[in-house]
User: What shape does this take?
Amino acid sequence: MDLQKGVGQYLTEDEEADSAESAPFAPQWEVDPGAAYAGESFREWLERPRKYWEPLTKEETFQARNRMEGALKQMQPVAALVAAKQLNSFLNNQSLVVFFTFKGKKLLFVGDAQAGNWEHWLFDTDTPDKKVTGSVTEAAKQILTGLDFYKVGHHGSGNATPIAAVNLMSAHEQKFAAMCSTEAGVYGTEDPEDPTKGTEVPRGPLLQKLASEAALIRSDQIPITVNSKSIKPQVSAALPAAIPGGRFEKGTLWVDCFL
Assistant: This one.
């Protein structure tokens, strides 16, 4: 579960729910109604349910499936949004954490992993306590104190990069590169009286700490060019100096990191 319940949750915009991509039965998922089990899959959608368990004809199967598709399409996007709200509380924690090593370089990509996921490999536990406490494993120490690149988790939310992990990154012998795909002011609010209670994404204190330890680039600090039109960055900050032996190169919509 998340470190702070409700922090850093994202849902698709309502208008996107009617797109072709969200249709419940895209062509590539079609099942041949003539297959042995296909008719039984739609039996409950028959217009006139049968008393006896007789095989459905191909025509009956098509009609039953069409009735089910029609009902599902009527429910969208409301049903999809409700389902998303239910699933979103734990799906982020299913995110893979991937650690690459290549030519002596170490790169960590944590996706949208939340506290429970971090705890599992930081502390070798299957019993999350939502506070990310305990003794860090030697394997985790080796990873986090020797990084060359860190893709900041979950758009820079506070529950996606635990304090224990940041403290280990701070023990790094040299600066590493870090990148964060984010946009200021989209989610949550700061708490000026108590910075520890802020729900903003990205979390200001987290990115400030990472910037002090790493060559940090955030996506909303670079100007981009779309259809020959230049769009100013939301955050006014120059690109940091690259890490030793590396360099940054800015494109029209991105920044490349060479290690």
About this structure: The chain has seven helices and nine strands. Residues 92-258 form one domain. The helical segments are 38-41, 58-75, 78-91, 115-122, 138-144, 163-170, 204-213.
